[in-house]
Amino acid sequence: MIGKEITSSDLLKESEALFTINKAAKRAEKIFRTSSCKSGKCSKKKLGNKLNKLYEMKRHIIEKALTSDLAELRGIHSKFDAIGNKEDLLYYQFGKYNFHVPVDSYEICNVPYLGEYVQKKYLKRNKSKYTTSRAKLILNNWMLEYRDEDN
Prior knowledge:
Layout: H1 9-34, H2 44-67, E1 71-80, E2 86-94, E3 97-102, E4 113-116, H3 132-150
Helix pairs in contact: 1-2, 1-3
């Protein structure tokens, strides 16, 4: 899989849906950090739960794509947060999109180091064509299809 971009139209749909989920998670994380709301839709607890579910879904989809040889692990980036703590991120390619996932300590071995991660702004051409709920539906259906094929 190294160096080849997967061009299946189905996979492009799934990678677009995962891009939408990732964008929604980043948006929720930004709101979570700035919110002081104690109740209602914007409460810290609800936003935290939403964040966890979105990032858990992202990790699960990437893991499934890796085991199915539909995604590729490109390497590892390091990143420093606002208070100077170092965090390592695994860098994946899935369809036409690239994703970062925080590293679990056991995942670091035999992964090429790609240097420090530089945050890029989303370009307008990367605007998603799916809503978050539609993206979740696409990815859940994709996971069910692959689960059926594995059995």
